[in-house]
Design brief:
Distance between the termini: 49 Å
Organism: Fukomys damarensis (Damaraland mole rat)
Pfam family, one: AP5B1_C
InterPro entries: AP5B1, AP5B1_barrel, AP5B1_C, AP5B1_middle, AP5B1_N
Helix content: 40-55%
Keywords: Protein transport, Transport
Radius of gyration: 38 Å
Protein name: AP-5 complex subunit beta-1
Low-confidence stretches: 192-196, 220-227, 352-364, 608-626
Number of helices: 32
Length: about 850
């Protein structure tokens, strides 16, 4: 919809809204489109202004009878003004919409030619929602209407939208008045005006310069001269402000739980940093809120606790809230999201605020072992619940410095047993990957929460080393774990793992994982044992991937400082490795180690923009050096062709045969299809190709968006033995119609006829049907089917009758009835659920006679 098409659609939409032949329901659907995509339909300010004006004209011209269009028109006009960026004092549509919304919210304009009395409350609620949206986008816009909105709250009308609108406008006005240094005189009195009417564009411009959060977050308590702390209301102003807040809180029980939570946050934001306004106004609400079963209200209570602390919550309130959270989290029938919410509340339970200067010792944790004994984690829990409960257990262990001898089982013992159980499950051969992931997540959580506790880190280190000994294939998990943890755990764990690896016998099945682990943990301290292990492993590294893993360990040792033993090993590898890429790497590492000192070697292995350049006569700015840095276009050194058709998986796969005319390395084949017939195709990578050596076939999964043949453009990117990077275009590859054929699952014996007939009947009426004549030639029908259509036969009565079902991606099918074959041909009845397939199927069948 972006671009000129979207603008044309916007003009047509506005024209259709004036069309009297369209029903109201159709127009409501059109307005829902304008609510969903206003910025695409009217992208610039002038178009948005004209669209809002047109929507308001349609609204005013509606006849005075009940209509479903008034509310969507108000919402659409508001959305267009906001998203178009034209809301302001210079906008004619804004100056028309704001008085209309304020009049509807106050009930003045309803019943006097605008609409029937029966629509008063719905229109009032919609007008309040529109005004709240405008106030959110232009904070302070309704600063002159606070008194009017407060008076409306005591009248008959929709309480929830009015309460939220008044709370938002009050919060914004207080913030902006405090920044400008103005007073609150008369703002909350009905009939007061700022001088520019009930809306104040001056305040709105000041508010737009300072974004005010619209989601739960608290301001700092003392923000200096620009925060609420700078506003010092007089006794009369403070009394009016307290009365307004009390009026909103008294009616809050009539709101939905979500609206109550939003209202409490807005009022808490307003009073938190305002001088002379104690939070005792919230105290009457606590008796109701502390016993609520609504999660949103419970979250609002915790937000108030975080905002006001001891000024609002007594020690009894705090204990009651904590006990309620603890008991609720233990309920056995809670759904998992609710259970996790309660655990999150316990983990993030706000302490008393303020506690004193930063760095002072915090108050002791109220959640002791006795209270949360039933919240201890177990191996039977869901992984997310287990991690949350484990976090709680770590907090208890952090508070309990010494084990209590009177307890049957201290938190420290429980923690060690739980981690041991997780490691034991992860060490079982063939266990799911999720168990290993959970074990390392729990270990990381413990290491993060108890980083300075050697009491838990020492058994954790030895436990992880034992886990690796039992199951070396978890090396990738351990490498990722080492990347995440701090040095207090990472350094000793590296040393233990290095000793564990080099002390193990070199076995082919685990060698890959040992090399991957050594590349991460190899250091200069135990280089002799590491080099001995690598020398023994070199004889077992027979394929390219193992040789690369071995060289990565050599690189890690090189970065750690190298040594004479490493020099000897690199010389041996440069001569003995079978793969030329591995020999080149080993030779390069040997040259670097033999000719560069420590600082220069570090810069060469890990170049940085901040590191000084090395002045050396070995590197000259010549043409040959520049050529090596460029990707050059060359004639194609390979030949690529389509091999026999493959039938496996849920997508068609193109089998490719490749032949190299010269040695090439790191080949990458990139494929592209013109148009939108196919989804983007992935690249195919081949490490090494050599002339005369047979290459494995390549497999290219196709992702058709339509069942149609196509031509694939192919580009090859590769490296030459001279070290140059080149690219070459290859001849295009053809994807024929039959390359897209996939078989249906073979039905059980005895139901083939019913299965085919059910597919046959399902094609109509939405599909298409046709008949073609398929010439046979001398080969006969049975030979033709066995050569071309055998995998797709559902039922056969050779040599004259065959029922064939073919799946065509993405979601089509082609059904064939070959019956009553004659000498020179056979009539074929075709059915498909995609009419575009018929001409392709006809051409394919007619061409079978000349295909081998």
């Amino acid at each position: 919809m972006a671009g000129a098409d979207g603008e044309d659609l916007g003009r047509d939409l506005l024209s259709d809204l004036r069309n009297e032949k369209l029903t109201e329901q159709t127009k409501v659907s059109l307005l829902s489109l304008s609510l969903e995509y206003p910025s695409e339909l009217w992208p610039d300010a002038s178009a948005a202004e004209a669209a809002a004006t047109s929507l308001l004209d349609v609204l005013v011209l509606l006849p005075p009878r009940p209509s479903a269009l008034r509310k969507p028109l108000l919402l659409a006009a508001t959305s267009v003004l906001v998203t178009g960026g034209v809301l302001g004092s210079t906008s004619g549509a804004s100056c028309r919409l704001l008085p209309l919304l304020l009049g509807l919210a106050s009930g003045r304009d309803v019943g006097r030619g605008f609409g029937p009395i029966s629509e008063q409350r719905p229109l009032q609620a919609t007008a309040c929602e529109c005004l709240r949206e405008l106030e959110s986008c232009k904070p302070g816009l309704l600063g002159g209407s606070l008194g009017l909105l407060r008076s409306l709250l005591g009248q008959e009308g929709p309480i929830q939208p009015l309460s939220l609108l008044l709370a938002l406008s009050l919060r914004d006005s207080l913030v902006i008045q405090s920044r400008s240094g103005a007073s609150l005189q008369g703002l909350l009195v009905s009939g007061f005006s700022t001088g520019s009417g009930p809306w104040d564009w001056t305040l709105a411009e000041e508010g737009a310069a300072h974004l005010i959060p619209q989601a739960p977050s608290w301001p700092t308590p003392y923000e200096g001269g620009c925060g609420l702390a700078a506003l010092e209301p007089s006794p009369e102003e403070a009394r009016e402000l307290r009365a307004a807040v009390a009026q909103l809180l008294d009616a809050s029980y009539l709101l939905t739980p979500v609206a109550q939570a939003q209202l409490l946050w807005l009022l808490g934001w307003t009073l938190r940093g305002l001088r002379g306004q104690p939070p005792a106004l919230f105290k009457p609400q606590l008796a109701r809120l502390l016993g609520t079963a609504q999660l949103t209200l419970l979250h609002a209570v915790l937000a108030l606790k975080a905002a006001f602390g001891e000024a609002l919550f007594t020690a009894q309130d705090e204990a009651l809230l904590l006990r309620r959270l603890t008991l609720a989290a233990q309920h056995p029938s809670l759904p998992l999201p609710t259970h996790l919410f309660y655990l999150h509340c316990l983990l993030s339970f706000p302490e008393n605020w303020p506690l004193g200067p930063e760095g002072e010792e915090a108050a002791p944790l109220l959640l002791g072992p006795q209270l949360c004994r039933s919240l201890m984690p177990s191996l039977l829990h869901d992984p997310m619940a287990l991690l949350a409960r484990l976090h709680l257990l770590c907090l208890l262990c952090a508070e309990e410095e010494e084990e209590d001898k009177g307890q049957l089982q201290s938190p420290w013992q429980y923690l060690e047993e739980l981690l041991a159980g997780l490691r034991q499950r992860a060490a079982v051969g063939g266990s799911p990957r999720a168990l290993a992931t959970l074990c390392f997540q729990a270990s990381y959580l413990v290491a993060s929460c108890l980083a300075g506790k050697t009491k838990v880190l020492t058994p954790l280190i030895h436990g992880l080393a034992q886990l690796y000994r039992a199951r070396p294939m978890l090396a990738p998990h351990l490498v990722d774990f080492l990347d995440k943890v701090g040095p207090e755990l990472g350094e000793p764990l590296k040393r233990v793992l290095q000793q564990e690896v080099v002390s193990r016998p070199v076995r082919n099945e685990a060698l890959r994982w040992h090399l991957q682990m050594l590349a991460k943990v190899a250091e200069g301290d135990a280089q002799t044992a590491t080099l001995s292990f690598l020398q023994a492993a070199a004889t077992h590294c027979i394929d390219w991937s193992l040789q690369q893993a071995l060289l990565r360990v050599c690189l890690a040792l090189l970065q750690a400082g190298g040594g004479n033993g490493l020099t000897d090993l690199l010389q041996v590898l440069a001569r003995q490795l079978e793969d030329p890429d591995g020999r080149d790497h080993a030779r390069l590492y040997y040259i670097l180690l033999a000719h560069l000192a420590g600082p220069k070697l570090g810069i060469a292995l890990d170049p940085s923009l901040a590191a000084p350049a090395l002045a050396s006569s070995l590197v000259a700015e010549n043409q040959g050096f520049a050529v090596t840095l460029m990707v050059q276009e060359t004639p194609a050194p390979i030949q690529l062709s389509v091999g026999p058709r493959m039938l496996k998986g849920s997508l068609p796969v193109l089998q490719l045969q490749i032949e190299a005319l010269e040695p090439i390395y790191s080949l990458e084949l990139r494929f592209r299809v013109e148009g939108q017939l196919y989804a983007p195709l992935g690249a195919i990578r081949v490490p090494y190709l050599c002339p005369g050596r047979p290459a494995h076939p390549l497999f290219l999964p196709l992702k058709p968006r339509r069942s149609a043949p196509a031509h694939l453009e192919v580009q090859a990117l590769y490296s030459t033995p001279a070290g140059l990077t080149c690219h070459a275009p290859l001849p295009p590859l053809s994807v024929n119609f039959e390359d897209l054929f996939l078989p249906f699952p073979q039905p059980p014996d005895g139901v083939e006829q019913g299965f085919f007939e059910k597919l046959w009947d399902s094609c109509l009426p939405k599909g298409a049907e046709s008949r073609v004549w398929c010439p046979l030639g001398p080969q006969g029908l049975e030979t033709l089917v066995s050569h071309h259509l055998e995998p797709f036969v559902i039922m056969a009565q050779p040599p004259t009758n065959y029922h064939i079902a073919i799946r065509l991606p993405p979601s089509s099918m082609l059904l064939l009835r070959l019956e009553a074959a004659q000498v020179d041909g056979v009539p074929v009845a075709l059915r498909t659920d995609d009419w575009a397939v018929l001409p392709l199927a006809g051409d394919y069948l007619r061409g079978l006679v000349g295909t081998k």
